[in-house]
Amino acid sequence: MSKQYETVIGLEVHVELATKTKIFCACSTAFGGAPNTHTCPVCTGMPGSLPVLNKQVVEYALAVGLATNCQIHQYCKFDRKNYFYPDNPQNYQISQLYLPICHDGGVEIETAGGKKIIGIHEIHMEEDAGKLVHDEWEDCSLVDYNRSGVPLIEIVSEPDMRSAEEVIAYLEKLRQIIQYLGASDCKLQEGSMRADVNLSVHEVGAEKFGTRTEMKNLNSFKAIAHAIEGERERQIELIEAGRKVIQETRRWDDNKESSFTMRSKEDAQDYRYFPDPDLTPVVISDEWIAEVKARQPELRSEKLERYKKEFDIPDYDAQIITNSKHMADLFEAATAICKKPKKVSNWLMGETLRLLKENNMDPEDLSFAPENLAKLVDLADAGTVNSSVAKKVFEQIFKENVDPEAYIEEHGLKTVNDEGALKATIEQIVSENPQSVADYKGGKKKAIGFLVGQTMKAMKGKADPASVNKILKEILDQE
């Protein structure tokens, strides 16, 4: 009988905070920008420069801590983590080791086996390092300090996860909470949310956990799931072959779907942490905590409860819409204008999700105004445009945020409601297609579909399909 193994997983999640300026200086945190243009003496580590803490960083860290049920260290400090690396200009990183701002929290996730709490060991504030760009053409490495000093929180979980599914559920829950708070956009592809995976395996029933490895360079949920499965298999193969799993940091290569060693004996590194002498301790009063709590927005669970009472939409729709704060905001704003929640929901659940998938976009990337969606709902409802034209107009709203009224007018897309003109077109189609007429009269009722199609083509899609059907039937049944 083959041995059974259990996987134990803990995560270190780095989240770039949505402040306009860096953690210890006034430089911009905007993504992009020409290399080394968002820099100053503080974030490039010039001698004699002094850091000044950005208050908004503390408030975002507090907000995330409170929303993830953490305890707050009301007296917390910054420490220097000393190490040399080319993208780390001071030769140390300012972080929090001894007294992190938040500790002992947890979030609830849904798993195949039911609800489960994933513990959060701590959340600490720190500065990001710069970025090395490897130029293979010139065979050199260049450094960009734009990211140096961008504020981060690091959320360190307990080793409570047992599968890739649980890890993804936990990350999605964290991302949702943080996006709802407005603390970060959590875009994995831009690096504003990054996860390092600590993983070990052991035989089921063993008293001790196995030796863990840490995997870095994971910038999508797909890569994280693949890396977990790959590392689990690699460790089991080593154990079955009687070899040892070495404690090390590994780098995941998503193209090759495999990992390779970066460095070993992570715990043996001595970072010589000591309290940062340039930064005073942060004292967080009860009043400050109460103030941050009072400002907390409605989170997803509360929003779902309200949707059930306030809007007549199915539970499934509410679950999908509230999964993204941006989509929930769009839904609520459009509904407030047109007062038709079910119809707004139908556009979001149908065409919006289809176009997001086709364009490989996230709901957070939606850029059209709720006013334009609300206008389209009203225009379609009033019969100003038929459903197929409405879908074409919506594509333009989705792509370019066009005003649907102006677009319909400009392109002559209004439904033709002139019954005389419609009847004349249908009579012509009937006279030109004797075979379809004969098929219809011979009992092939589906033949009417061809005649409807020909009529819509002749009307350039601007007729109301229900009216076309009605008039066609009247004409065919008379003959």
Automatic annotation (TrEMBL):
EC number: 6.3.5.-
Family the UniProt entry places it in: Belongs to the GatB/GatE family. GatB subfamily.
Record's keyword terms, sorted: ATP-binding, Ligase, Nucleotide-binding, Protein biosynthesis
HAMAP family xref list: GatB
Transmembrane segments: none
Provenance organism: Hominisplanchenecus faecis
Summary of subunit composition and partner proteins: Heterotrimer of A, B and C subunits.
Domain of life: Bacteria
Role of this protein: Allows the formation of correctly charged Asn-tRNA(Asn) or Gln-tRNA(Gln) through the transamidation of misacylated Asp-tRNA(Asn) or Glu-tRNA(Gln) in organisms which lack either or both of asparaginyl-tRNA or glutaminyl-tRNA synthetases. The reaction takes place in the presence of glutamine and ATP through an activated phospho-Asp-tRNA(Asn) or phospho-Glu-tRNA(Gln).
Protein's name according to its UniProt entry: Aspartyl/glutamyl-tRNA(Asn/Gln) amidotransferase subunit B
PANTHER family found in the cross-reference section: GLUTAMYL-TRNA GLN AMIDOTRANSFERASE SUBUNIT B MITOCHONDRIAL AND PROKARYOTIC PET112-RELATED, GLUTAMYL-TRNA(GLN) AMIDOTRANSFERASE SUBUNIT B, MITOCHONDRIAL
Reaction it catalyzes: L-glutamyl-tRNA(Gln) + L-glutamine + ATP + H2O = L-glutaminyl-tRNA(Gln) + L-glutamate + ADP + phosphate + H(+); L-aspartyl-tRNA(Asn) + L-glutamine + ATP + H2O = L-asparaginyl-tRNA(Asn) + L-glutamate + ADP + phosphate + 2 H(+)
